[in-house]
């Protein structure tokens, strides 16, 4: 047997497998075919032949995916086997088309990105479903794979297979030519079955057994069903898992098939999929460089949080002194009510986008009039650029005379800047602080902004606690100590709940005095978290978000990290036909939840959607 591999694939083969063994997460490019279609190459032409007739167009697509953040690009050869090319009279050019496809991808990759030879189904039925024999199918795959190897691919991607017998022949064909890595995916329906009806646990086991290095699925009805499918895959294999969903469900618009999932939606899918254990992600039909760019941001976000999990609380833990000098009942009115066991309520209001503070002042005055204990001021929520939360808090306290709770995120400042801000906040009279890690910039409208993350929320609590004892980060006396009441965030529905519990424990040990949860829509999840947190004996304030509309509910469910809305809640909102009915149902859902949980928590943080304080106050 002849070994057709050249030196470049050998080198890249080892590095790709090493990346897998090191536990790296990898992002693939999206759909070349969808972009060719958008650029005027319609289905009456062979997309694969464009490698020969319009190579610059294919090269540009590869380059766009690489620029968006793809670490693997697939060759434009999904339909470049002799059976499919025969329909266009091109069966005698299959070697030329495949070689050109690999060469174009290799040149675009510039040795910085892995190149995967793409193999798709033959377009004919093979035995036992049709007249084409297994051996004949394997020979066709082998001839295509041979041309791709000569063109310089590093690995193979087998995608959109419906028939398990057929993908088995593709795997065998590649294995007969050498030992390049194989990514094998079955095309699935909404239930996760292959399009021939094979159950997910079975086809994943067989792909693993037949020697694929990475196993998974592509296609389907969009990202969300893939997350449920991931659980079944993880129970069936130890191999790295790949998910490549379509960009939502397609619709026909002006004669064109348009995939409706936004880049942001695909980005949130990527974030959740990485957290739940997927190792490789990409996109199938409808996935553009814009989708891949946001998904790459989700990958960087996951890595960023992994990087700040260990170092942050090690940095300053050696200076930690837990007791505060000022008793909690003297720190602030908010702290006193909590320490006295009273029920507290705060209202979350976003800082203004510009300089106009009149609205937030007016809204704060309404809150004060209705007995709200404090105004909660987020710090650049979802990595947005707004007025400084510190400045906003000072303005509210000065103009309205109601206490604020200052959110402070670690994202934008280094250790020196954080200490300066904390001292400044205390000097300006801010008494309550909620310590958070912060959303990475890639989630927001300015994805090229630089994140700092010198510390995370745990390290920040350490820092505030230390300042409350009268010492700075380096252990030097600051003279008069600060006296801030220290709160932290908690997420009862975190994807990795054990990790969330571990971090919560660290926050309490660092000196957290109370906690506010993410918006809660599922009381059972909250009760489970309260059962865990009861051992720490710190008050929990439940986050409440009254849903304004079904659109608001779906946005919260799909786009806001850390929020889970049960299907029964979404269904209740969908059944309401008018906007007014949806609003009333949202209030009713929130009131029911409050009644259910209020005896188990020490307070509520109520969010005012779009600043609609009067709407939010209906809960009380």
Automatic annotation (TrEMBL):
Keyword field contains Oxidoreductase: yes
Keywords of the record: FAD, Flavoprotein, Methyltransferase, Oxidoreductase, Transferase
Pathway membership, UniProt: One-carbon metabolism; tetrahydrofolate interconversion
Pfam families, alphabetized: MTHFR, S-methyl_trans
Necessary cofactors: FAD
Coiled-coil segments on the chain, per record: none
Annotated Hcy-binding domain residues: 14-299
Transmembrane region(s): none
Biological-process GO terms, alphabetical: methionine metabolic process; methylation; tetrahydrofolate interconversion
GO molecular function, one term: methyltransferase activity
PANTHER family: SLR1189 PROTEIN (PTHR11103)
NCBIfam families, per the entry: PRK08645.1
Stated name of the protein: Bifunctional homocysteine S-methyltransferase/methylenetetrahydrofolate reductase
Native species: Fluviispira sanaruensis
């Amino acid at each position: 047997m002849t070994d057709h591999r050249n030196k470049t694939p050998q080198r890249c083969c080892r590095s790709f497998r090493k990346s897998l063994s090191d536990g790296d997460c990898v992002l693939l490019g999206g759909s070349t075919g969808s972009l060719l279609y958008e650029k005027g190459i319609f289905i009456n032409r062979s997309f694969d032949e464009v490698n020969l007739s319009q190579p610059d167009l294919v090269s540009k697509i590869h380059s766009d995916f690489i620029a968006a953040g793809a670490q693997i690009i697939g060759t434009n050869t999904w339909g470049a086997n002799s059976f499919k090319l025969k329909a266009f009279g091109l069966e005698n050019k299959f070697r030329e088309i495949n070689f050109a496809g690999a060469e174009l991808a290799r040149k675009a990759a510039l040795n910085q990105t892995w190149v995967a030879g793409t193999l798709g189904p033959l377009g004919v039925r093979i035995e036992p479903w049709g007249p084409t024999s297994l051996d004949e199918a394997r020979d066709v795959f082998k001839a295509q794979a041979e041309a791709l190897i000569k063109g310089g691919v590093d690995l193979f991607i087998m995608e959109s297979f419906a028939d398990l017998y057929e993908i088995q022949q593709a795997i065998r064909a590649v294995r007969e030519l050498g030992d390049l890595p194989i990514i094998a995916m079955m095309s699935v329906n909404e239930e996760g079955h292959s399009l021939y009806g094979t159950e997910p646990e079975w086809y994943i086991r067989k792909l693993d057994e037949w020697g694929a290095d990475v196993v998974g699925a592509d296609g389907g009805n969009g990202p969300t069903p893939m997350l449920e499918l991931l659980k079944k895959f993880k129970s069936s294999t130890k191999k790295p898992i790949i998910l490549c969903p379509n960009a939502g469900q397609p619709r026909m618009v002006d004669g064109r098939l348009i995939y409706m999932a936004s880049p942001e939606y695909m980005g949130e899918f990527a974030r959740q999929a990485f957290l739940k254990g997927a190792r490789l992600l990409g996109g199938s039909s409808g996935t553009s460089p814009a989708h891949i760019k946001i998904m790459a941001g989700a990958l960087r976000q996951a890595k960023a949080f992994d990087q700040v999990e260990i170092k942050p609380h090690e940095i300053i833990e050696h200076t930690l002194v837990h007791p505060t000098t000022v008793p909690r009942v003297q720190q602030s009115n908010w702290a006193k009510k909590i320490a006295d066991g009273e029920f507290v309520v705060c209202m979350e209001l976003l800082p203004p986008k510009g300089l106009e503070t009149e609205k937030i002042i007016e809204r704060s005055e309404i809150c004060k009039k209705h007995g709200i204990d404090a105004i909660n001021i987020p710090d650049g929520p979802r990595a947005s650029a707004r007025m400084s939360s510190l400045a906003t808090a000072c303005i509210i306290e000065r103009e309205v005379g109601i206490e604020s709770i200052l959110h402070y995120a670690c994202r934008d400042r280094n250790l020196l800047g954080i200490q300066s801000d904390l001292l400044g906040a205390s000097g300006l009279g801010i008494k309550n602080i909620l310590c958070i890690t912060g959303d990475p910039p890639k989630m927001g409208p300015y994805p090229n902004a630089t994140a700092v993350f010198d510390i995370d929320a745990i390290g920040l609590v350490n820092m505030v606690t230390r300042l409350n004892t009268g010492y700075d980060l380096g252990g030097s006396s600051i003279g008069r100590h600060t006296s801030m009441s220290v709160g932290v965030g908690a997420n009862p529905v975190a994807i990795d709940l054990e990790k969330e519990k571990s971090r919560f424990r660290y926050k309490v040990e660092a000196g957290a005095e109370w906690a506010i949860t993410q918006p809660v829509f599922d009381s059972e999840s909250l009760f489970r978290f309260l059962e865990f947190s009861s051992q720490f004996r710190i008050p929990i304030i439940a986050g409440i978000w009254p849903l304004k509309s079904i659109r608001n509910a779906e946005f919260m469910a799909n786009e806001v990290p850390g929020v889970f809305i049960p299907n029964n809640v979404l269904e209740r909102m969908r059944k309401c036909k008018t906007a007014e009915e949806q609003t009333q149902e949202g209030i009713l859902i929130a009131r029911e939840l409050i009644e259910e949980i209020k005896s188990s928590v020490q307070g509520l943080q109520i969010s005012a959607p779009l600043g609609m304080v009067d709407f939010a106050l209906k809960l009380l």
